[in-house]
Design brief:
Blueprint lengths: L6 H11 L2 H16 L2 E2 L7 H5 L7 E5 L24 H14 L10 H4 L3 E5 L4 E2 L11 H15 L4 E5 L1 H4 L11 E5 L4 H4 L9 H11 L8
Length: 221
């Protein structure tokens, strides 16, 4: 695994890379990529950090696992590569976005444009074995990404955290709610959305209202 993370993040997280758990994680990931098909591509494991620098960070969206189908994952949670059919959760994200802020349903499911505006699209686990959801969980990634969330909470101010679903909501304990803004809802997956826990949350417009109130540029969703 090539830990070529963006310099602004390396400066904040270098102590994590030196810890024993990260060495074990690196060895595990290298072996998995050598012996199995894994996603995303090695060069895209840290894409969330490459597209969203630490100084520019304004919003955090937390996912769980990368997509485990061919050519889907690109290192940004909920995002897929250009030209790839949109997975069910992403379809519901775009439907809510369309209803909330009036943006037409996009052709591409690639969320790089969000990331480049300061949205950290962070999966709790950054790699996965092909066709095996959750296969790289509990190997150290969660320790690392929890440290990322804590670092953001401690060193930034007025970041908007969008916590979708039970897994993401558990991360609220890592966030100082006295200096940041936490919006929660059900998960955009069909199971949750069809029960009424997703649609109508208006997170895109609410997020922008918070950003504007703090003198920041809104996100062009």
């Amino acid at each position: 695994m090539n830990v070529s993370i963006a310099p602004s993040w390396k400066e904040k997280l270098y102590t994590e890379f030196e810890k024993p758990y990260f060495t074990e994680l690196t060895n595990f990931v290298k072996q998995e990529y050598k012996e199995h098909t894994c996603y995303p591509a090695g060069s895209q494991i840290f894409s969330a950090f490459d597209f969203c620098s630490f100084p520019d960070l304004k919003v955090v969206i937390i996912g769980q696992d990368p997509y485990h189908g061919p050519n889907q994952a690109n290192g940004l949670c909920f995002s897929v590569k250009d030209g790839i059919p949109h997975p069910p959760s992403l379809i519901n994200i775009f439907k809510e976005q369309e209803k909330d802020v009036g943006k037409p349903y996009p052709k591409s499911g690639n969320l790089e444009s969000w990331a480049s505006q300061g949205v950290l699209l962070l999966n709790a686990t950054l790699t996965v074995r092909a066709h095996q959801a959750g296969s790289h969980q509990n190997k150290g990634w969660e320790t690392f990404t929890d440290a990322v969330i804590k670092t953001i909470s401690e060193e930034k101010r007025d970041v908007v955290f969008l916590l979708w679903g039970g897994f993401a909501k558990k991360k609220s304990k890592l966030i100082d709610a006295t200096k940041h803004h936490i919006l929660t809802s059900g998960h955009p997956s069909p199971l949750s959305a069809n029960r009424g826990y997703w649609f109508g949350n208006q997170h895109f417009s609410k997020c922008n209202e918070i950003l504007v109130s703090k003198g920041k540029e809104p996100i062009i969703w």
